[in-house]
Amino acid sequence: MGTGSLGGGSGSAGGGGSGSGAGARGSLLRAIEGLREISRRLTSDSDQPRLTQVIHELLRERGRTAFIRDMLADGFAASLLADLLEIGAKLDKGASWEDIARAFGVDPGAGCMQAVCDARIDMVLQARDYTVDDRYVELASAAFRDFLVSAIGGDRVVATRGNAAAIDAAIKPDKFHNTIDRYLGALIFQAIGADSYRDLGAAASAVRQAADTVAIGIYDRFDMKFLATGKAERKDVLYVLADNYFKLVTPT
């Protein structure tokens, strides 16, 4: 009986361990298959209406919905959006990139756009005592940098090495006239891309275009339901989206 009991105990433990291991492996395989399916859906066809529909569907999947809502409500992404709105307002008033860099405590020499990005991201993190979820930091920071690079025509050499004069020569202030939907599009692109099993590669441009289209629709619904009715201000868009996610994400 003792031997049997020990054997049974061992068998039970072994069976439980084996079952748990198999269950864990099964869960991992299902997760990998899920990520592969996302990759397939995003890269199999660059047709914009189809990609836009895929992104709408991905944004409304339960697990992803919770993550994105939490990220938007957290405030880190909203703080970086506020910086972009401030930069746009300064440019509208005729500020040079040197003016902007110095306003943010950055030397206007070589690499000053990258330095502005680093400084603003670090300042927001400092204000939060570096307690922001790493995933939120990664996605929102990438969207922030992506927006600024797009404002100089996508020239990453100028973005990383150019001085203020080079930034002034390349920057397109009109890009800041649609700051919110372009930044939101970048956020959506980063969040969806992060769930892809493999790099989007050649499909990235088409996926980004579709993400921008989705973001424009979201902002238009925000405008109609909240701005036009005086229920919110532009700067609050990400918080409002977090609180009214399905109302704003779902196409009408």
Textual characterization of the structure:
The protein has 252 residues and is mainly α. It has one domain (48-249). The chain is 75% helix and 0% strand. It is built from 13 helices and no strands. The chain has helices spanning 2-43, 48-59, 62-74, 76-92, 97-103, 112-127, 134-150, 156-161, 164-170, 179-194, 204-227, 237-243, 245-249. Helix 4 packs parallel to helix 7 (134-150). The longest helix is centred in the first third of the chain and has 42 residues, at 2-43. The relative contact order is 0.13.
Task: Draw up the topology in text.
Layout: H1 2-43, H2 48-59, H3 62-74, H4 76-92, H5 97-103, H6 112-127, H7 134-150, H8 156-161, H9 164-170, H10 179-194, H11 204-227, H12 237-243, H13 245-249
Helix pairs in contact: 2-11, 3-12, 4-6, 4-7, 6-7, 7-10, 10-11
Number of domains: 1
Q: How many DSSP helices?
A: 13
Q: Quickly give the structural class.
A: mainly alpha
Termini separation (Å)? Answer: 69 Å
Largest sheet: none
The beta-strand count equals: 0
Shape: globular
Mean pLDDT: 86
SSE order = HHHHHHHHHHHHH
In angstroms, what is the radius of gyration?
A: 23 Å
Helix content: over 70%
The proportion of residues in beta strands is under 5%
* Low-confidence regions: 1-18
